[in-house]
Structure formats: structure tokens, C-alpha cells
Amino acid sequence: MRVAFLGLGIMGRPMAANLVKKGHAVTVWNRSTGKTVDGARTAGSPKEAVANAEVVWICVSDTAAVEQVLFGEDGVADGIKPGTIVVDSSTIAPAATVRFAERLKKQGAEFVDAPVTGSKIGAENGTLIFIAGGREETLEKVRPLFEAMGKQFVRMGDVGKGEAAKLAMNLQIALIYEGFAEALVLARKLGVDQKALFTLIQSSMVRSGVVDYKMPFVEKEDFSANFPLRLMHKDIRLTLEAAREAGIELPGLATVKQVYDRADKAGLSDMDYAVTLSVLASD
Amino acid sequence: MRVAFLGLGIMGRPMAANLVKKGHAVTVWNRSTGKTVDGARTAGSPKEAVANAEVVWICVSDTAAVEQVLFGEDGVADGIKPGTIVVDSSTIAPAATVRFAERLKKQGAEFVDAPVTGSKIGAENGTLIFIAGGREETLEKVRPLFEAMGKQFVRMGDVGKGEAAKLAMNLQIALIYEGFAEALVLARKLGVDQKALFTLIQSSMVRSGVVDYKMPFVEKEDFSANFPLRLMHKDIRLTLEAAREAGIELPGLATVKQVYDRADKAGLSDMDYAVTLSVLASD
Questions:
Q1: In chain A, N or C: fewer CB atoms in 10 Å?
Q2: Based on the domain organization, do B183 and B77 belong to the same domain?
Q3: Could you tell me if A137 and A228 lie in one domain?
Q4: For residue A209, which residues of chain B lie inside 8 Å, CB to CB?
Q5: How near does any CA of chain B get to the CA of A11, in Å?
Q6: Can you tell me the ipTM of this complex?
Q7: Structural domain ending residue among the three candidates A122, A157, A192
Q8: Is B11 in CB contact (< 8 Å) with chain A?
Q9: Where are the alpha helices (DSSP H) in chain A?
Q10: B270 and A207 Cβ atoms separated by less than 8 Å
């Protein structure tokens, strides 16, 4: 398919590269110039990139960036043709997603939100899971692209539900890690053998992919960024905003946000979110 | 071995039964009379039960109950002989455990704390994991009993470290479930397809035994007690107490405690702790 890929960050670049590898005709664009993908054409603006595209795929950092790419100067809306499908893999506000989809609909374009789980490694290996919202027929049309970049897509409902489900997933990651970190702080302080505790965790019902993944880094106290704290912090804020708009409280997540606020103040935003362990330990 | 088993509750009774099955000579005692175990002798007091025992195994509800069994009228301390090993599988305060061990040591008895993970089903099937604290030689001496009732024991350090590690494990269970419950409340409110969300959870890194176990009950809204809320609530209070004594803060767990406090006030203490989902949803 002819795909315009907008946003060549940590996730976007390997995703676009996987589309090229599977034989799709890809045109890429990135806000800061100089980033390219082998085998893809490079465009000077979103407008130029989407001119001839069947599908526009967006992977940028936040709600404001998506809005800019779609409706800013020389944006997607300036160049898109009726019948084009726009897929957004950024993690942004569900409510904004619905608004964006409605605006694009007036131009005859269909919208899909498809944020991902699987992080950088999943993007590189093409093993992402897409958490999708949109009409079933639209999702089917872009199935070859999902399959080029990921191992599966799960439809969570109509437009916006993909983003909502993504926030619900990251909420769980945040609380699982918080539990692991608090358990570790307590166990260390009470003199429990840490190796034995890790063995116990891994043979018990609290074992999860989240903790399996972080455990070796925690053991080495290596908090270099894999999933940077500032991004998880952003997702937590988005989630609490969405909850507030929906009139519900998420007390656990609100508390975790305070831990991230402290980490941020301590200048740890560019470290991995696992560094919140140090913040808790420094009480 | 000749074992006195004290406490025939949800956990204790099947544990004692498994000892009998493996050919050990078991004498049982329970605070409220009338409870027995096929093939075991029944004693009228802890003192009477331990008179001829090589090992005393305790499985009661809380710190006060352990103290009463050990040092109350006609308690263990009134009848125990030097060289006896006392194993406590109750989940109680680590600091109290250390004090109890010291008092028993003066009578020549050795102490092991060995709370369990695996719940009622694990107790019945003999697949418990013992989270043990005590001298290695002492633990080795009771290995046949661990093996009769469980699939493994993990030594977390000296006396008291088993209880400390158990609290650290339950802390994680509490936060994993809180994350799952908050995610569900949010996703429902935002209109996400719940079946799709469950599929997504189970194919992602947030999957854990805790959520795998609770998911079908949550789907049926069946909150009948498997692990009663009041017991998890008690463990959470114990953990926060231990943290306070150690001079550390556990902000996530402190927040979860507030959710349990509300559940308690709403009269839900005898339901499963999974019912906290309803408390969160009623905001």
C-alpha cells in the first residue's frame, strides 16, 4: 500500500522501516529534519507526504503534536484526499482522538486510533500489539500494515477506545511497578535476602512481564531509559485527566503520580521510570 | 515426625490433613472445639498438644492469636521441651515474631517463621510455597514437613524475614489488583469492550497470576470470599505498621488501605478482596 508515515521517533522509525521491508511504498516525514528511512521517500511536510497516500500513519509524542501534524500549517488536513485512512499510533487523549476523527470525517477521511504496546524492541522486531479503535471494516483494510509492524491487533471498540484501553494498560504497568518497588524498599529495610525475594516473586502469582523485564535492571541499579519516566509521567497525567472528565477517581494512580512528580523535581525525567524505586527508597 | 498442629482454620485444617496423609503422627488443637482431622489425635489445649511433639506447627489468624497460643494459659510455653522446633505459618508482624523466638529460645526451643502463599487451594493440594525465616539447619530438619504440605520453601533470612517477605508479597498482590480494578473502572466508563480488554491483558506484560485468578470472578461479579477482604486488610495494616517502625513510607499501599477502609465501612469485609472493584466503581 502507499503509506505516509509521520513521526520518526524511537517507535516510528523502526515501524516505518518494517513497512518498507514488507514492500509497501512509504513516504516519511519528521518534524526535525535529517531523519530518514532506507528505501522510503522523504517529504518536506505532512501535506506533501499525504498527497498520494492510501493510508496515513502517525506516531508522535502527544496530543498537541498530533493536532499540529493533522491541522497545523501544511498539515495532513491540507493535503488529504477523500477515502484516505488515518491511523494514529501515538498515545494521546481519547476525547481529543474523537474530535480529530470528526474533523477528518468532514474531509471524507476515516480515522483509526491504534496505540501500541511492546516498546522499542517490539517496534524493531515487528512484534507490537496494536490497541485499536475504529470501524471494523476500516481496521480490516489496514490489516496488512498491522501485520507488517506487529504480531496482532485487538479492537477495543469505536474511535477513541484504543486510546482509552492503552491508558488502562499503562495504568496497570504503573501500579505493578509501584507495588514491586514498595515491596523492595520494605524488604530491604527489614533485611530480607533480595535474591531469595526475586526467586519467590518469580515462582508466585505476582510474577508479571513488567517485573520480569525490570528485575535485572533493578539488580544492576541500571536506570538508563528504556521507557523514559517523562513519557510514563505524561501517560499518567493523560489518564487522570480522562478519569476526571469521566467523573471517576483513580486513587492508586493519583498516588503514583505524586511519586513521579517527585522524581521529576529530582531531575530524573530522562531516566527509566524504574528509577521511581530510588525516590521511594530515599524517604 | 511427631507434630502438634495448632489452628484448624481454612488453611490449617487441610495442611494438618496433608501431614497425616504423609504418615506423620499429628496431634491437633483448635481454639473453638469440635474441629478435628481424620487420623489425628485431638488435644484439649496447646500445652497438651505439644507435650510429646518434635515439631509444633502454628496456623492462626493474627499476632495476638499467636501470642495467646504460645504464652497464654495452657499455652505452648507451658508444655514445650528443649529441642522442639516451633514453626509459625500465620501471617503476623515480623517484629513480634523476633520477640516470640527470643522468648522460646530461653526454653531451648528453636523458632521458624514460615507463612505461606498459595491460598486455600494450595493448602488442600499440598502446593503451598513456604516463605521461611530461621536458621538453615532448623529449616532442613523440618524439610519433610514442608514437602508434605507444599511444593517448595524459600529461605528469606533469619527469624522474622519470612514474615517480612510475606508482607512484601501481599503488598504486590494488593497493588496489582488495585491497578487491574482501576483500569477496569476507567475502561468501562470510557466504553472500552471489556472482553477485548481482558484478551489484551492476557497477551501483554501486565498479565499475572493474580489477575488470571480474579478475572473470571470479576466477569461473573462473584465476590464470594476466596481470600476474604478482612484478612488482606489485616495484612495491609501489618505492613504499614512494619513500614512505620522501619521509618519508611509506602504511599501506594497507604492509598489502597483507604479503599479497604471504605469497603470495610460498607460492610464488605467478609467478601473477597476483589470486591474493592465495586468500591472504586461507586465513586
A1: C
A2: no
A3: no
A4: 204-207
A5: 18
A6: 0.95
A7: A157
A8: no
A9: 12-21, 46-50, 63-71, 76-79, 94-105, 119-125, 136-141, 143-149, 161-189, 194-202, 209-220, 229-246, 251-265, 276-281
A10: no
Burial of A219 (0-12, 13-18, 19+ CB in 10 A): exposed
Instruction: Specify the amino acid at residue A36.
Output: T
CATH of the domain at A265: 1.10.1040.10
In this complex, the residue of A172, A174, A283 whose CB is nearest that of residue B248 is A283
Whether A169 and A275 share a structural domain? yes
Same domain, B105 and B129: yes
Identify the closest residue of chain A to B259 by CA–CA distance: A251
Last residue of a domain, one of B106, B138, B157: B157
Report how far Cα B267 is from the mean position of its chain's Cα atoms: 23
Statement to judge: residues A120 and A191 lie in one domain: no
Residues of A in contact with B256 (CB under 8 A): 252
Residues of B in contact with A115 (CB under 8 A): none
pLDDT tens per residue, range B120-153: 889 999 999 999 999 999 999 999 999 999 999 9
Q: How many independent structural domains does chain B possess?
A: 2
Which pTM value belongs to this model? 0.95
Instruction: Write out residues 185-204 of B within 8 Å (CB-CB) of A.
Output: 185-187, 189-193, 196-197, 199-201, 203-204
DSSP state of A35: -
DSSP A133: B
Domain that holds residue B178: 164-281
User: Is B166 a catalytic site residue?
Assistant: yes
pLDDT averages per 10-residue partition of chain A, 283 residues = 96 97 98 94 97 97 96 97 97 97 97 92 94 98 98 96 98 98 98 97 96 97 94 96 97 98 98 97 84
CATH number for position B112: 3.40.50.720
Q: Which residue of B has its CA nearest to A169?
A: B183
- Which one of the listed residues B166, B195, B234, B265 is annotated catalytic? B166
